[in-house]
Amino acid sequence: MKESSDEYTDEKKKELLTEAKEELKRVEHLIYVSLKYTRTVDVLLNAISRMIEAYDFTFQAILQHALEEKKVDEIPATPIEKGNLVKQVYPDDEQVSDNVGLFFLLRKLHRSPSPQREQEYRRHVTMRTIVDGKEEIVNIDIITRYYLFQLEFYRRIEAELHGKQE
Description:
Helix content: over 70%
Order of helices and strands: HHHHEEEH
């Protein structure tokens, strides 16, 4: 009986990581294709939304693994609790902490009530908004850096979870 439940959770982790990978592929397309031709803040917001989804799937896979390893008792329902719990699972890991911080920032950027749109339909399309009393700017270069940072984190987690499964 134990083996089948392990197989189920391994399958679930693989499925969650596959979903995260698919979202990251969509982000890549948005950045390197859609933004190249469209150059609107709406495309930036769509990329941010996809990045949030990819983080959510990745965190879910991490927490599923931590649950199996008995490092956590349960997986919380809210994204903020999940992010904070992931930081607890990796307490001294700067990369994890930075990625959870980026996840929280992306959520705030996406929920921003009225971002300013600058230079739409041009190379330097920019979204400006206020987050936690500080002006945040997102443009093609910044969203690309965020994407590459997240992709590196995803690859590390995928290798860790697949390495421990085999």
